[in-house]
Automatic annotation (TrEMBL):
Domain Inosine/uridine-preferring nucleoside hydrolase, first and last residues per copy: 30-303
N-terminal signal peptide: 1-18
Keyword field contains Signal: yes
Family: Belongs to the IUNH family.
Biological process per Gene Ontology, one example term: purine nucleoside catabolic process
InterPro entries registered for this protein in UniProt: Inosine/uridine_hydrolase_dom, IUNH, Ribo_hydro-like
Domain of life, source organism: Eukaryota
One Gene Ontology cellular component annotation held by this UniProt entry: cytosol
Key words of the record: Glycosidase, Hydrolase, Signal
Lineage, top ranks: Eukaryota, Fungi, Dikarya, Ascomycota, Pezizomycotina
Name the UniProt record assigns to this protein: Inosine/uridine-preferring nucleoside hydrolase domain-containing protein
GO molecular function, one term: purine nucleosidase activity
Length: 360
């Protein structure tokens, strides 16, 4: 997920699984993301909604998986949440590589945001940007504005295996949240034929539709907001995950760009004297204005283009039931959100974050 739009994209998907509930059974979540300095907002919202986070998983999307895993550890340490474990995910997509990705761009045009597969840029890394291309196992310490972590990810198992273990331990109660590539989830689906059906739901950030004209006629920044790097970094994994038999799949695609933090919002968050409020107020964010409406979602059938020769490689296509091809499934596609309610929840989670003492 790209940096400038990261705030709105992450919190929307997180909000879908962190709504207050009055169920007798416990609600658990595993949060899979390409973690970065300000990537803590989703898990703060989930914790604020009394969701029990079993662990964080790292993937390759915005940057390489190993860098993201350390960001996850570091941001948890910053707010006294190290009781939540971090599990390293797959470093490589199922098929894609930087070279393959860049060759596709030569034929079909460059993406405004290329994530981990952007050409290696040592100058940008020296200035504090996360690593892209090159050696996937290297770390860029200058990018850890939250502080370089003292701890490490849990090495007892992989992210995919952890997901499988948890849905068997808590059948029907574990939401799988993804705001990055779907590689780990696809691996879990292929590892265990019961994995998807035993989960509570899959919630993802990604899956933009009908935006080609906007990308062509708008600014580069506007095109950047519409780029679907989470799915395009690993199209084959996206196809596997989004056709698996999860009881429910929720997609936060175009809706993600409806909510951006205003300067007034940021200034109010600044008044809270805690590490997360301070990190958020210092992070790169975009102050934009969009129109907001109440929640609105539709049930659609969805497929992922996995043809490497297609200009839409890694993008989704949606269908109504009568016209859908075989082998795809129905998903909940969110179109609009209640912006006021969402921003209030974000604000509360940032200004009153929970710690391990609260979770004990």
């Amino acid at each position: 997920m790209h940096w400038t739009a990261c705030f709105s994209l992450l919190v929307l998907a997180a909000g879908a699984i962190a709504a207050p509930h009055a169920r007798a059974d416990k609600h658990y979540a595993i949060m899979d993301n390409d973690w970065y300095t300000a990537g803590f907002v989703p898990y703060l919202i989930a914790l604020d909604g009394d969701v029990d986070i079993l662990g964080l998983a790292s993937d390759t999307a915005n940057s390489w998986q190993r860098q993201g895993a350390l960001h996850a550890v570091a941001t948890l340490e910053a707010g006294n949440l190290s009781c939540i474990p971090v599990y390293a995910g797959a470093t490589w997509p199922l098929i894609n590589t930087p070279e393959r990705f860049q060759a596709w761009e030569t034929i079909h045009g460059k993406l405004p945001w290329e994530g981990a597969f952007a050409p290696e840029n040592k100058t940008a890394e020296a200035e504090g940007n996360d690593p892209t291309s090159g050696n996937p196992n290297r770390f860029v310490k200058a990018a850890f504005r939250e502080g370089y972590p003292k701890g490490k990810p849990n090495n007892s198992t992989s992210a995919a295996n952890f997901m499988v273990e948890m849905v068997h331990k808590y059948p029907g109660q574990v939401s799988i949240y993804s705001a990055g590539a779907l590689t780990n989830i696809a691996l879990a689906v292929r590892m265990d034929p019961e994995f998807a059906s035993l989960a509570k739901q899959l919630v993802i950030m990604g899956g933009y539709v009908d935006l080609n004209m906007l990308q062509a006629t708008g600014s580069i920044m506007l095109a950047d907001y519409q780029s679907d790097i989470n799915l395009m970094i690993d199209p084959e994994a996206s196809k596997i995950a989004l056709t698996a038999d999860f009881p429910s799949i929720t997609i936060a695609g175009n809706v993600a760009n409806q909510v951006f933090p205003s300067q007034q919002f940021v200034d109010e968050v600044k008044t809270a004297k805690n590490p997360y409020a301070e990190l958020f107020s210092k992070s790169k964010y975009c102050v934009c204005r969009f129109e907001f409406t109440d929640n609105f979602a539709a049930l659609v059938y969805l497929d992922v283009d996995t043809s490497y020769g297609s200009p839409n490689y890694g993008n989704i296509h949606v269908y109504q039931k009568a016209l859908a091809p075989l082998g795809i499934r129905q998903v909940n596609y969110i179109f609009e959100v209640d912006a006021d309610r969402l921003t209030q929840r974000i604000k509360h989670s940032l200004m009153h974050p929970k710690t391990c003492a609260d979770l004990a």
